[in-house]
């Protein structure tokens, strides 16, 4: 059941869309002004950063830019609840068994994998979670009667295909709803990608989900299994996320599963950032979030042109304000109204590619592995602060590592090599040579780290 706060926010969200772009803009400005005032009053970091600004700020362009590195360096000053400290949060996320548990009895905590070179620790309050749930119900408004019946026929069961363990957003969210929202949580189930593909396929066939969510790369592999007849599920909705979804990739998922496909573009920093439409665009929930495509100097980029990066503002989370935050992705803002009819601004994302690594299998066929497999493995590996895997030949993988201070680089490499070899063998990728690189991981000009670089094929 929805709480009263979620119902109230959901009603307002639907009303905003019906009233059109001007009503959405009014809400955005009022909520931005409220969040800036709250951050100044309750966060020492923002109080210092915003000195000299006007008393009321409802235009994001007036705000200085922040990023993960700057915020994490001032974590205890950044948060608005003095009981939330970096030491306490680190201690909390060190225990994978606490994923989805309420931190300090009232907050959800999620971590990022560190694609920008810094691991993020993000705390979300009840208001932020309520907005996330409410806007999710608005995104589902495009389902037809037939789709709703298909969902109901399978009991609304949702399969989240991801890597369990750790405090990553997908795992934490599912665990949170199971614990805090039992009626909703009992129809959510996480399926581990840390197993050979046939085992995952068999589990999904038994579960027969009404909807399937996961990283695009993994869902593409499952689409191949569906096309081959080994996977036999008929979800009403497929929700790919985490990686750039091309129109061709979305069409393949829709055809393989005979389902509505609604790609999601979001981030741990703002989980409700946007929702996909039938035309392959991401519509920004701009009544509760701000998205600014900008150039390298953080100046606005005209609609229709790719940005250097994108700045986001989360207008719901009061415990850890995210304001004019450099996310690092390149986006394109649609210059004309979207054919789907939504008044919400529409973007396409260029900065997250679904990089599958493909190797010869022992039977002579090709085996393709999702980038998420490698990320969830190495993010937990002791001593590894960053990594990059570069496929330089069909059976050669070059491993770039950034080792933490005080860690034995040779010992870390030995552990990483063993874990990668085990992963490849488990997924029947035969005779792959693992090379230890002398150079560290290389960042792109936009500042983000492309952690998986597949072989460029003719």
From TrEMBL:
Residues 437-458 are annotated as: Disordered. InterPro entries: ANL_N_sf, CapK_Type1_Caps_Biosynth. Signal peptide: none annotated. It comes from the Bacteria. This is Phenylacetate-coenzyme A ligase PaaK-like adenylate-forming protein. It comes from Nonomuraea roseoviolacea subsp. carminata.
């Amino acid at each position: 059941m929805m709480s009263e706060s979620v119902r109230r926010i959901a009603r307002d969200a639907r009303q905003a869309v019906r009233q059109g772009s001007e009503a959405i803009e009014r809400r955005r400005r009022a909520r931005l002004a409220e969040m800036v005032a709250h951050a100044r009053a309750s966060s020492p970091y923002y109080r210092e950063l915003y000195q000299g600004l006007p008393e009321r700020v409802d235009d994001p362009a007036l705000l200085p830019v922040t990023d993960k590195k700057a915020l994490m360096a001032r974590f205890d000053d950044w948060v608005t609840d003095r009981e939330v400290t970096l030491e306490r949060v680190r201690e909390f996320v060190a225990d994978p068994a606490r994923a989805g548990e309420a931190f300090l009895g009232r907050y959800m905590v999620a971590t990022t994998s560190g694609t920008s070179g810094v691991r993020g620790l993000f705390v979300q309050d009840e208001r932020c979670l309520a907005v996330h749930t409410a806007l999710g119900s608005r995104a589902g408004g495009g389902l037809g009667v037939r789709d709703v019946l298909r969902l109901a026929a399978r009991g609304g069961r949702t399969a989240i295909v991801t890597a369990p363990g750790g405090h990553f957003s997908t795992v934490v969210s599912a665990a949170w709803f199971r614990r805090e929202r039992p009626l909703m949580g009992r129809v959510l189930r996480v399926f581990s990608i840390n197993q050979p593909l046939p085992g995952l396929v068999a589990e999904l066939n038994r579960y027969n989900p009404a909807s399937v969510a996961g990283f695009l790369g993994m869902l593409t592999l499952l689409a191949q299994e569906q096309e081959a007849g080994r996977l036999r599920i008929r979800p009403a909705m497929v929700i790919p996320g985490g990686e750039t979804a091309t129109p061709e990739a979305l069409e393949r998922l829709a055809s393989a599963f005979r389902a509505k496909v609604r790609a999601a573009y979001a981030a741990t920093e703002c989980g409700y950032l946007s929702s996909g439409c039938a035309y392959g665009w991401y519509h920004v929930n701009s009544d509760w979030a701000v998205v600014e495509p900008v150039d390298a100097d953080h100046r606005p980029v005209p609609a229709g042109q790719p940005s250097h990066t994108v700045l986001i503002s989360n207008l719901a989370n009061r415990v850890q304000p995210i304001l004019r935050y450099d996310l690092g992705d390149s986006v394109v803002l649609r210059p004309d109204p979207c054919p789907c009819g939504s008044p919400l601004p529409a973007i396409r994302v260029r900065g997250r590619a679904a990089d599958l690594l493909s190797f010869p299998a022992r039977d002579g066929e090709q085996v393709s592995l999702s980038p998420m497999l490698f990320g969830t493995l190495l993010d937990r590996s002791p001593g590894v602060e960053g990594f990059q895997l570069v496929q330089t030949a069909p059976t050669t993988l070059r491993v770039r590592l950034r080792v933490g201070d005080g860690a034995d680089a040779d010992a870390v490499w030995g552990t990483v090599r063993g874990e990668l070899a085990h992963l490849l063998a488990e997924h029947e990728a035969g005779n792959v040579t693992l090379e230890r690189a002398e150079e560290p991981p290389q960042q792109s000009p936009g500042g983000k780290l492309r952690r998986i670089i597949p072989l460029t094929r003719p």
